[in-house]
């Protein structure tokens, strides 16, 4: 899970939104930029892009708020064993509107997509929140 704080000092209203296909393309580029030894270890992970978590109201500007940017669903690779029952493909969800809400331009959004995706991928590789925060 990756949360972030809206910066109320410099935050303005978001008047634009990246096209979903462009958003997904940035995720693909982040994936392509991974070192080969990581890429070939990624198996059965789907990446989904959603607007918002189902129980969250649209983000508002002007109030500090913790926003969920992404989430990893599944069993970290390090905890899988031959006895593990299949529970469907692992997946990473990225929340587009929350990512956009904490960024003020497209370059920032692209960087944030990349960071969020790599963070959630870290969970797939079995890293803890603490390890990822220090990375
Ligand atoms: Zn996390």
Strand and helix order: EHHEEEHHH
Strand content: 15-25%
Quickly give the CATH architecture: 2-Layer Sandwich
Largest sheet: 4 strands, mixed
Number of strands: 4
The shape, in one word, is globular
Q: What ligands can be seen in this structure?
A: zinc ion
Report how far apart the termini are. Answer: 15 Å
Note poorly predicted spans. 5-12
Helix content: 25-40%
Strand order of the largest sheet: 1-3-4-2
Compute the number of structural domains.
1
Indicate the structural class: alpha+beta
Structural commentary:
The protein has five helices and four strands. With 135 residues, the protein is of the alpha+beta class. It has a four-stranded mixed β-sheet with strand order 1-3-4-2. The protein is globular. Zinc ion (ZN) binds next to helix 4 and helix 5. Zinc ion binds at residues 1-2, 119, 123, 129, 132.
Features:
single chain; alpha+beta; Zincin-like; 5 helices; binds zinc ion
Which helices and strands appear, and what pairs or packs with what?
Layout: E1 2-5, H1 20-32, H2 36-39, E2 45-50, E3 66-73, E4 90-95, H3 96-101, H4 106-124, H5 129-134
Parallel strand pairs: 2-4
Antiparallel strand pairs: 1-3, 3-4
Helix pairs in contact: 1-4
Short description:
This protein has 135 residues and is α+β, with helices and mostly antiparallel strands. It is 36% helix and 18% strand. It has one domain: Zincin-like.
